[in-house]
Structures are given as structure tokens and as C-alpha cells.
């Protein structure tokens, strides 16, 4: 058993896997969250995150390696505190650091000498030094002398069986050489590989760079999808052929838009910060515009197909959305393009239902609160046949695509799911 007590603030898709990994590494771990329902589930050994099974959770809870609480006064017991809270955008697409700021203030109230405080939340360069550090130093303590401050960007990939917290290389940095060494030592005890960088700002930008890279390339193939579609060319066939080139090409795939906490949000953290330096981010902002427009494109393809194939206007159509999570095989609906698409269709008076094997009920979200409480329907021959069109938005593995093919009148496929599952159906329209 290691002697340090570790606090993990924010027990979501990043924090809970980190807490479990730290506990397995031999640390005594205390998980903090303001959501009391999460705390109660954890106390009974029930996980709400796919990356942490009930069995894995129960093993570290049973031996006392991990406990969960909403009592922030327990921060005083922690030698290391890792902050894994949300960093969303405001309606004006500006950084909302309220979760980071409030957490830092709570830590500052119980700050003691020699604690190591690490931010993992994705943010713009300068957040750790310019926002967190002054709050922590407000009572007279000094970073690098009385406490130590660091940054290490999260790198979780929900739904991926090939990666887990302990095997994903961890970028680390600290405020000064001692802090940098402590951050590297801490994560080195949990993960297989640590990647030290020279400054906290570099570490903050690494995470932004990773997600901007994906956002820009997805925007490119989304734009190509629209262009090639107008020419009668299948973008997915093009990509499959292009990726046979063993050099100079990396495949990215189009879709109905971007979802999740990272890719739709992170680029705008950099564009906001860039204004301070009077530097434009035209390329990044254009990519954002293209990706944001994709639900509108899907709706237009659906409307056209309903009209030309079934003679039904969108305002009189009943539509079944298949998949509302932001990516396959997860239950996370944050920033999901499916929610935007549902709202767009309902604004046109279409009758909408959804099926998602991972989302029994749509939870309350910041952008789409009116959809909260909408229940999943079961897929069956009769339920599918009751709708004029099916729109595949999220291509979960657990969906019976053959059933969809056999009993639907029209399928709008935004993920090429039917063809990838070997199903040939003349009622499929790719979008």
C-alpha cells in the first residue's frame, strides 16, 4: 500500500476510471462529486461508467482503497488532488471555467503544506497558472514552496476496448521542477508511460491540439461527403480505397455531427484565448461551422428522401432515431448530434421516437433540456414498421441492423452502418 492519499474531484468519465486505477496501484483514494446520486451508487458498488465494471469497483471499495464523498472538508486528508471536472462552453461559445474555479476555491479552503494539486480538465493555455494558482495562493501559500501545482490532460476513450487509463501514455507538467517531478512520480505509479513536457502551458495545448486535429479532419470528410454526394460518389467507398495507401494518409470518417465533451468544445477554448493575442483561428472556426451544420444536412437528406421516395412531407412524417449517444457503444449523450437532430425535426412538426440500447431515457442536458425524460422504445418488427423513416445516428454494435433492413420503409444512414454490416438494401439513403 502506498502512503499517499489521493483525492479525485469529479467522478465522471475521466475521474472514476482514474480513481479506480489509482486504487489498484495501491493508493488510498477518496473520490469527490457534488452529484449525490453518483456517491450513493458508488457506495453500493454500482458503476455508472462503462470503463469501470461493477466488479472492479466493488474490489477497490471493499478493501477500503476507494471511498466516495460529497464532503469537501475531506480535502485536508489528501496529499494529492486531481481535478477532473467539466469545462463546457457558454451559449456564446466562451470557456465556462466555473467548475474549475469552484473546485479550486473548495480546495483552497482546506489547503495545507506539501499538497500536490493537478488539473486534468481540458482547457485553454494559461488556466492553471492564471486562474487556479491565484486562488490557491490567496491565503498566503506559494506554489513551489508550500504546495505544488501541475497539469496532466485526460486521455480517456469511452467505449474503446483497446485502451484503459493505465495503458494510455500520460502527458505531465508542473509549476517548477519540483512540481514537475512530483506529477511525473504520481502518474508514473498509475500508468505505464509518462510523457513530461517543459511547461504547464505546453501540456494544456497538447490536449487542445489532439482534439483540434480530429475536429478539423472530421470537418474535411464531412465537407467531402456533401461534395461527393452531389456528384453521386460514395464518400465511404472513397475512404476505404484511400486508406490502402501505406503512407501520407490517415482515415477519418464523416457523420451527423460531433459529440462528446471534447471535440465539439475544445477547439473553441483555443479560439477564445487566441483573441487575447490578436491571432485569428479561421481554419479551426471553419471546421467548427462545418461540423455544426451536419445535423441540418442530415435533416435535408431525410426530407428529400421522404418526399421523393414516399411522397410524405417532413411535417407529417414519423421518424425513428436509432442511437442518441454521441459515439458507438457508450451511454454518454453530451453534445450528441442526435439531440440537435431531434430538436430540428420536432421544430418541423415531425413525430420523433428513438431507440438506443445504451440510453434508456434521455437525461437532462445543458443544451437540450426539453428532451429530458424521453424514453427509448424497443426495436421490433411492429415498432419499426410504425415509422415512415429510420435515421441511424449512432452505430452501436448491439443494434439489429437486419431487423431494420427487413421492416423499415426508409433508412437514412449517417454512419454507413448498413453496408459495414454487410446489408444491401435499396431503401437505404446515405447521409
TrEMBL record:
Q: What is the lineage of its organism?
A: Bacteria, Pseudomonadati, Pseudomonadota, Alphaproteobacteria, Hyphomicrobiales
Identify the Gene3D superfamilies for this entry: NAD(P)-binding Rossmann-like Domain (3.40.50.720)
> What name is this protein filed under?
Nucleotide sugar dehydrogenase
Reading the lineage from the top rank, the first entry is Bacteria
Keyword line: NAD, Oxidoreductase
Q: Which Pfam families match?
A: UDPG_MGDP_dh, UDPG_MGDP_dh_C, UDPG_MGDP_dh_N
> Where is the UDP-glucose/GDP-mannose dehydrogenase C-terminal domain positioned along the sequence?
320-420
Q: Which NCBIfam families does the record match to this protein?
A: NDP-sugDHase (TIGR03026)
Q: Cytoplasm: present as a keyword of the record?
A: no
InterPro entries in the record: 6-PGluconate_DH-like_C_sf, NAD(P)-bd_dom_sf, UDP-Glc/GDP-Man, UDP-Glc/GDP-Man_DH_C, UDP-Glc/GDP-Man_DH_C_sf, UDP-Glc/GDP-Man_DH_dimer, UDP-Glc/GDP-Man_DH_N, UDP_ManNAc/GlcNAc_DH
- Family in the record: Belongs to the UDP-glucose/GDP-mannose dehydrogenase family.
Q: Which SUPFAM superfamilies match?
A: 6-phosphogluconate dehydrogenase C-terminal domain-like, NAD(P)-binding Rossmann-fold domains, UDP-glucose/GDP-mannose dehydrogenase C-terminal domain
Asked if the record carries the keyword Disulfide bond, the reply is no
Amino acid at each position: 500500500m502506498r502512503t499517499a492519499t489521493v483525492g479525485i474531484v469529479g467522478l465522471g468519465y475521466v475521474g472514476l476510471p482514474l480513481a479506480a486505477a489509482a486504487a489498484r496501484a495501491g493508493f488510498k483514494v477518496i473520490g469527490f462529486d457534488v452529484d449525490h446520486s453518483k456517491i450513493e451508487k458508488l457506495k453500493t458498488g454500482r458503476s455508472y461508467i462503462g470503463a469501470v465494471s461493477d466488479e472492479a469497483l466493488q474490489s477497490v471499495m471493499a478493501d477500503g482503497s476507494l471511498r466516495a464523498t460529497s464532503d469537501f472538508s475531506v480535502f485536508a486528508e489528501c496529499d494529492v488532488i486531481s481535478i477532473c471536472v467539466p469545462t463546457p462552453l457558454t451559449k456564446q461559445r466562451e470557456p465556462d471555467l466555473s467548475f474549475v474555479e469552484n473546485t479550486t476555491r473548495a480546495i483552497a479552503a482546506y489547503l495545507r503544506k506539501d499538497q500536490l494539486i493537478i488539473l486534468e480538465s481540458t482547457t485553454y493555455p494559461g488556466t492553471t497558472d492564471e486562474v487556479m494558482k491565484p486562488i490557491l495562493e490567496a491565503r498566503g501559500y506559494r506554489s513551489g514552496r508550500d504546495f505544488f501545482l501541475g497539469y496532466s490532460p485526460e486521455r480517456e476513450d469511452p467505449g474503446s476496448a483497446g485502451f484503459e487509463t493505465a495503458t494510455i501514455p500520460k502527458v505531465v507538467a508542473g509549476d517548477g521542477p519540483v512540481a514537475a517531478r512530483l506529477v511525473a512520480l504520481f502518474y508514473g505509479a498509475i500508468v505505464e508511460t509518462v510523457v513530461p513536457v517543459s511547461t504547464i502551458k505546453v501540456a494544456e495545448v497538447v490536449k487542445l491540439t489532439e482534439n483540434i486535429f480530429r475536429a478539423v479532419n472530421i470537418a474535411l470528410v464531412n465537407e467531402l461527403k456533401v461534395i461527393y454526394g452531389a456528384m453521386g460518389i460514395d464518400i465511404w467507398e472513397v475512404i476505404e480505397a484511400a486508406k490502402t495507401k501505406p503512407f501520407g494518409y490517415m482515415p477519418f470518417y464523416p457523420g451527423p455531427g460531433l459529440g462528446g465533451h471534447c471535440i465539439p468544445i475544445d477547439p473553441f477554448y483555443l479560439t477564445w484565448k487566441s483573441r487575447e493575442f490578436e491571432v485569428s483561428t479561421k481554419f479551426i472556426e471553419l471546421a467548427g461551422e462545418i461540423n455544426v451544420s451536419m445535423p441540418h444536412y442530415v435533416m435535408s437528406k431525410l426530407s428529400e428522401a421522404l418526399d421523393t421516395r414516399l411522397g410524405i412531407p417532413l411535417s407529417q412524417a414519423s421518424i425513428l432515431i436509432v442511437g442518441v449517444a454521441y459515439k458507438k457503444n457508450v451511454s454518454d449523450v453530451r453534445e450528441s448530434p442526435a439531440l440537435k437532430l431531434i430538436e430540428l425535426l420536432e421544430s418541423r412538426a415531425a413525430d420523433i421516437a428513438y431507440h438506443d440500447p445504451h440510453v434508456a431515457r434521455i437525461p437532462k442536458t445543458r443544451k437540450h433540456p426539453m428532451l429530458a425524460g424521453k424514453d427509448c422504445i424497443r426495436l421490433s418488427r411492429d415498432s419499426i414498421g410504425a415509422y415512415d423513416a429510420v435515421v441511424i445516428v449512432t452505430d452501436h454494435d448491439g443494434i439489429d441492423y437486419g431487423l431494420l433492413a427487413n421492416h423499415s420503409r426508409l433508412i437514412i444512414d449517417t454512419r454507413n452502418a448498413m453496408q459495414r454490416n454487410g446489408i444491401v438494401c435499396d431503401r437505404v439513403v446515405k447521409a
